[in-house]
Specification:
- By secondary structure, the chain is α/β, with parallel strands linked by helices.
- It contains ten helices and 13 strands.
- It has a domain of 147 residues: 3-Layer(aba) Sandwich (Rossmann fold), CATH 3.40.50.720.
- Strands 3-2-1-4-5-6-11 form a seven-stranded parallel β-sheet, with helices on both faces. The protein has a two-stranded parallel sheet with strand order 7-10.
- Strand 1, helix 1 and strand 2 form a beta-alpha-beta unit.
- The mean pLDDT is 94.
Length: 294
Amino acid sequence: MSRTVLLTGATGFLGSHVLPALLARGHRVVVLIRSSSKTDRIAACLDDVVLVDIDAAPLEQVMATHGIDTVVHLACEQGRGSSDIAALLAVNLTLGIQLLQAARSSGVRYFINADTLLDAGVNAYALSKKQFSAWLPYFSTAMAIANLRLGNIYGPGEPASGFLSWLLQEFARRADRVELTEGAQLRDFVHVADVSAAILAVLDRGGETGLAAYDIGSGEMLSVRTFVETAQAVFEQEAGFMGSQLAFGALPYRPGEVMVPQFDTAALFALGWRPALPLREGLADTTRAFLSGN
């Protein structure tokens, strides 16, 4: 069923993959941006979407004018290297509440939110995301809401501050020594294309009212050490031997590090969805994009 989707965060890493996936499925997409947003990531899609500047029009007006029936809320502020809590809350909490209120008053039927698997006590980003998700039950009597806890996403276009992106940069510059923690913590690493497909599977599920929760991942927990070692092996397969020493244990775990997160893809898999990219294939795809400058 074709939907009219209001998409936030389209110019970000995940959003720039979700947008073309929505269009390919035949959905009409209204992209919510700010006047300062850079649209380079989605340049190929601009002729096929409606761009709306959130700074220029009230959200209720946007939803009514364009007949929005579904909101896919991916916008977030991770606050890396910043202590501006107000800016973090403006995106991760206030914008979300404004969207929920506008969606309720405009008769939107379905709201999909991208959440984090991080516990609230890990950092300010995680706390702000959990503060927003705590509001979802309050609005779920008026519309169907799906809250998606995202695994560790990697893939082409990952920001330079991302973990895999940083690793690939270290390998590419032939770093003698790459300092890491012991790497025993478990994570579900999932390619961004698979996350996009999973979001579309949740979108297809629809629903009347109520709150549903899904963990979005590959279904396989791997140690960070295994992920790093595999990434190095794939990089050297694609680019030749680099010789970087992986110095596991050189760094301490961060305060409050979760070693085994509570993460279960059973509800997602019950929809019939399965990931398409095994780890090595996904890493090879990402490495080739990195080496080609994409």
